[in-house]
Write a structure and sequence with these properties.
alpha/beta, TIM Barrel, eight-stranded parallel barrel, two-stranded antiparallel sheet, 11 helices, 39% helix, globular, binds ligand PBG
């Protein structure tokens, strides 16, 4: 009989005791803050479905990255909304596009910030798919060199890490080889390895103007029902040269985060995506949940599942709450 010998409540009695036996830590340096960048200057537009998130012009992204760094958030990931889109996503490699300009602005304003860029075509193609089309099919192999050119453009601007989110097969190897050939040996790759075809990306697509004009992404992003397949994706990305891997979304995929952590010894990131953020904000705004408490509980749970890093729109406020 364990009771009355074992009284687990003994170690829950005070804040100090609870802190001493806490198994999981949460700190601002665990967070990567997503930033949406638009062309121009002096632009700051709120994203209606993501309260607290703005789209800004590059120089204001620099200011925001500095403010985040001062709170302890060491890294940001950039998403660009270009002026021009075409069938093959030409503007994705524009050295004067919003992402490249924001990389430079952030490096000027906050040199120690680790700048990550999202590498994908959906924001840059007129049809909103993540690769080039043949009829209504996204073509894998012809997309690879466009993604690699985008990654090189970001590296030239000064990005520390490029993060392919397109889900084409072989893109990590293609990007690694091209970066190396162009002399960017030290630019790292954060692979969106296990990225699911999820309904939780809706608010992001409003912000990034990247909703596909027809169909959906199920022929390239993963089926939400699969976890063994996630491990295949992760192991191939590691083999192809990924320095960090990612699981996305986070909250409904914590088992995948755990499996990823056990399958690999490189850092694992989880993306607490826009729909997850919007649900918390909407419920908190209605007074149905305690926003700060629920947010910190979610972020702690993602860490407990095994994530080393969390991409989250809560980065700024959560860092303030963690004080
Ligand atoms: C681009 C990309 C998406 C997200 C990150 N990179 C959207 C998508 O795949 O449709 C979603 C992020 C979020 O919902 O917060 N491919």
């Amino acid at each position: 009989m364990s009771f009355p010998t074992h009284r687990y409540r003994r170690l829950r009695l005070t804040d100090s005791l609870r802190e001493m036996v806490r198994e999981t830590t949460l700190s601002p340096s665990d967070f990567i803050a997503p930033l949406f960048v638009v062309p121009g200057s002096g632009v700051r537009q709120a994203v209606p479905s993501m309260p607290g998130v703005d789209r800004t012009s590059p120089e204001l992204a620099g200011k925001d990255a500095k403010a985040l760094f001062d709170l302890g958030v060491k890294s940001v990931i950039l998403f660009g909304i270009p002026d021009a889109k075409d069938a093959v996503g030409t503007s994705s490699a524009d050295p004067n596009g919003p992402v490249c300009l924001a990389v430079k602005a952030i490096k000027a304003e906050s040199p120690k910030t680790v700048v990550i860029t999202d590498v994908c075509l959906c924001e840059y193609t007129s049809h909103g798919h993540c690769g080039v089309l043949k009829g209504e099919t996204v073509e894998n192999d012809p997309t690879l060199k466009i993604l690699a050119a985008e990654a090189v453009a970001h590296a030239k601007a000064g990005a520390d890490i490029v993060a392919p989110s397109d889900m084409m097969d072989g893109r990590v190897a293609a990007i690694r080889q091209t970066l190396d050939r162009e002399g960017f040996l030290n630019v790292a790759i954060l692979a969106y390895s296990a990225k699911y075809a999820s309904g939780f990306y809706g608010p992001f697509r409003d912000a990034a103007e990247s909703t596909p004009s027809f169909g959906d992404r199920r022929a390239y992003q993963m089926d939400p029902a699969n976890v063994r397949e996630a491990i295949k994706e992760i192991l191939s990305d590691v083999e192809e040269g990924a320095d960090l891997v990612m699981v996305k979304p986070a909250m409904t995929y914590l088992d995948v985060v755990r499996a990823a952590k056990e399958a690999t010894n490189i850092p694992v990131a989880a993306y607490n995506v826009s729909g997850e953020y919007a649900m918390v904000k909407a419920a908190a705004a209605n007074g149905w949940i305690d926003g700060p408490r629920v947010t910190l509980e979610i972020l702690t749970s993602i860490r407990r599942a095994g994530a080393d890093l969390i991409l989250t729109y809560h980065a700024k406020e959560a860092s303030e709450w963690l004080g």
